[in-house]
Design goal:
With 540 residues, the chain is of the alpha/beta class. The protein has a domain of 291 residues: FAD/NAD(P)-binding domain (3-Layer(bba) Sandwich). The protein contains 15 helices and 20 strands. The strands form five sheets. Strands 1, 2, 3, 4, 5, 6, 17 and 18 form an eight-stranded mixed beta sheet that branches. A five-stranded parallel beta sheet has the order 7-16-8-9-12. The longest helix has 21 residues. The structure holds flavin-adenine dinucleotide and NADP nicotinamide-adenine-dinucleotide phosphate. The site of NADP nicotinamide-adenine-dinucleotide phosphate (NAP) has 28 residues, from helix 5. The site of NADP nicotinamide-adenine-dinucleotide phosphate has 28 residues, from helix 5. InterPro entries: FAD-binding_Monooxygenases, FAD/NAD-bd_sf. This is FAD/NAD(P)-binding domain-containing protein.
């Protein structure tokens, strides 16, 4: 069911218009409704789900445990819903999102198959005017983007890309009816999390899988398994405390076995035992073995070498193993990948790794791909080449703020946004998981819930005070951006050419975009709210 577009005019704007119907947009709609603020959602997909609607490639799962990668805002919901696996599959997560949409009757205010193509601020009326690809203009007092950090795919400009005559897929736009790769020769470009999850599944179906790797990634085993009744019961009985712990006391928004000491100064044999135990337990818990792993290069090297040793132990062909070992950036400086039999996949007879650092792609050909050394023919070519992350979807929305200033121009040298929620000069525009918020460095649902609650509370505050516009103070924004950078540079994160830095998109400014520390961020936001929303300017 898709709602008709809300009927709005500049004289009768809707209070809040939310763009996007993933985890963020759905919760934002629910929250606004709870306070009686008129709201509607516009979504370009034909249904809810966002990331989990689009990314249906085989093997897609969450990398945060299902019991934690779920909404915490409704006690009955978390008691009634039962996850089946430690790391839920994409279909199960999508079923959950659909369940939420139905349970809270959200679809009646969501218009699907409609993309927002531009948004322009009307300074005199203090409201936004939006165009969509569905026709009529929309007018709203507040515009809230819930467009996702990983929702604009990056299709690299490889020579000859349009000449390919076989079938092309992208992991981020996988056909909903599924794909039968039986007997097919498959080429896979990219070795990020998507590829690492997909490769074992693709290899088990295809006649031949050739993985083209430019940069190897660090990956830890998921050790996925069905959830036991005991574990589910424990979480359900303790949800409120556990959720609070994740929100208020962790850097990542997820509960792990947190470190109690530094690797530096600890006996190497003890470190090995600890890392081994975490490797066996599985998941991103491995990253939290010691408190200096993402801070001190020497400590980081220990964990990195441990993983490289695991790769060498697992992959039988020494040259392939060596090519799979990342060596030129710190482990954990890119989001750690969590896999099921990724490295083992390279022991299969039908799988081959091509190291693009040794033989770069020359061009895509009508029948496959040519590197500097060899030509490959495929029936199917798959791009797992990532996203124009964090800012890409926002800058593509053609947003124009006060004084005719374009968002894409304002952010040309790098994005700045106060708390990652508002960018000065774009009044009444809120961004959920915008640049400068913890977003992608966290269990994203925890961050999304916090951002939504903050925006909601601010909108209620404005209503109570009879204010109709709000903007970020330019100096507060500058200070926040400096703080985001300063915190990042106390860690090893900026040493990797990652998408956190915009490094995967040619020409994108190299700025570390997310904020490190869910706990610290929440405390700062709470203090700002208590201080009457310091750093925000309001007007009647
Ligand atoms: P999205 O889910 O991206 O939703 C944004 C929506 O906005 C989309 O439906 C899009 O169609 C819509 N939209 C965008 N622009 C427009 C427009 N102009 N007009 C109309 N609609 C528009 N995070 C984790 O914390 N843990 C994980 O395990 C995890 N796994 C992931 C796996 C994959 C394959 C990917 C790609 C990401 C993963 N993430 C994970 C990050 C994930 O994106 C977030 O966890 C979360 O789902 C984001 O929700 P969202 O609502 O903010 O954005
Ligand atoms: P990604 O990590 O950005 O990986 C993209 C891959 O494509 C990289 O290996 C990149 O190589 C390669 N690539 C890009 N352009 C190329 C070119 N021209 N030639 C050859 N190779 C090229 O993207 P992703 O795998 O989709 O993951 C993005 C993020 O989504 C993750 O970090 C994670 O946050 C989230 N995610 C999570 C999960 C999960 O486990 N739950 C699964 C998927 C995604 P270079 O590194 O050399 O640029």
């Amino acid at each position: 069911m898709s709602a008709p577009l809300p009927q709005t005019t500049s004289d009768t704007p809707i209070h809040a218009l939310v763009v996007g119907a993933g985890f963020a947009g759905l919760y934002m709609l629910h929250r606004l409704r709870q306070s009686g603020l008129s709201a509607a959602v516009v979504e370009r997909a034909p249904d809810v789900g966002g990331t989990w609607f689009w990314n249906r490639y085989p093997g897609a799962r969450c990398d945060v445990e299902s019991l934690q990668y779920s909404y915490s805002w409704d006690e009955d919901l978390q008691q009634d819903w039962t996850w089946t696996e430690r790391f839920a599959t994409q279909p199960e997560i999508l079923r959950y999102i659909n369940h939420v949409a139905e349970r809270f009757d959200l679809r009646r205010d969501i218009t699907f198959d409609t993309a927002v193509t531009s948004a322009t601020y009307d300074e005199a009326a203090r409201q936004w005017c939006l165009t969509t690809d569905a026709g009529p203009e929309l007018h709203c007092r507040y515009l809230i983007t819930a467009v996702g950090c990983l929702s604009s795919a990056n299709l690299p400009a490889i020579a000859g890309i349009d000449s390919y005559e076989g079938t092309t897929y992208r992991t981020s736009l996988w056909p909903h009816e599924g794909v039968d790769l039986t007997g097919q020769r498959v080429g896979l470009i990219g070795t990020g999390s998507s590829s690492i999850q997909a490769s074992p599944e693709l290899a088990s179906q295809a006649a031949e899988l050739v993985v083209f790797q430019r940069t190897p990634n660090f990956s830890v085993p998921a050790r996925n398994q069905p959830l036991t009744e005991e574990k589910i019961r424990y979480w359900k009985e303790n949800y409120s405390d556990l959720r609070r712990e994740a929100r208020e006391t962790t850097r990542s928004g997820a509960i792990y076995d947190l470190p109690v000491k530094s690797a530096i100064g600890t006996d190497p044999a003890e470190i090995r035992t600890e890392l081994e135990a975490r490797w066996e337990k599985g998941g991103a818990n491995f990253a939290y073995a010691y408190n200096d792993l993402i801070v001190t290069q020497e400590a980081n090297d220990i964990a990195a070498e441990f993983v490289r040793d695991k790769i060498r132990e697992t992959v039988k062909d020494p040259a392939t193993a060596e090519a799979l070992c990342p060596k030129d950036y710190p482990i954990f400086a890119k989001r750690i990948c969590v896999d099921s039999d990724y490295y083992e996949t390279f022991n299969r007879d039908n799988v081959r790794l091509v190291d693009l650092r040794k033989m770069p792609i020359d061009r895509i050909t009508p029948t496959g791909l040519k590197t500097s050394d060899a030509a490959f023919d495929f029936d199917v070519l798959i791009y797992a080449t990532g996203f124009d992350a964090i800012t890409g979807t926002l800058t593509r929305m053609n947003i124009t703020g006060a004084g005719g200033r374009k968002l894409a121009e304002k952010w040309a040298e790098g994005p700045k946004a106060y708390l990652g929620l508002m960018t000065a000069g774009f009044p009444n525009l809120f961004m959920i998981t915008g640049p400068g918020s913890p977003s992608v460095l966290s269990n994203m649902i925890v961050s999304i819930e916090q951002h939504v609650d903050f925006i909601h509370d601010l909108l209620v505050d404005l209503r109570e005070k009879g204010q109709s516009s709000v903007d970020a103070d330019p100096q507060a924004e500058e200070d926040w951006a400096a703080h985001v950078t300063e915190v990042a540079h106390t860690t090893l994160y900026p040493r990797a050419a990652s998408w956190y830095m915009g490094a995967n998109i040619p020409g994108k400014p190299r700025v570390f975009m997310p904020y490190i520390g869910v706990d610290r961020y929440r405390a700062k936001c709470d203090a700002i709210a208590r201080a009457g929303y310091s750093g925000f300017h309001t007007a009647p």
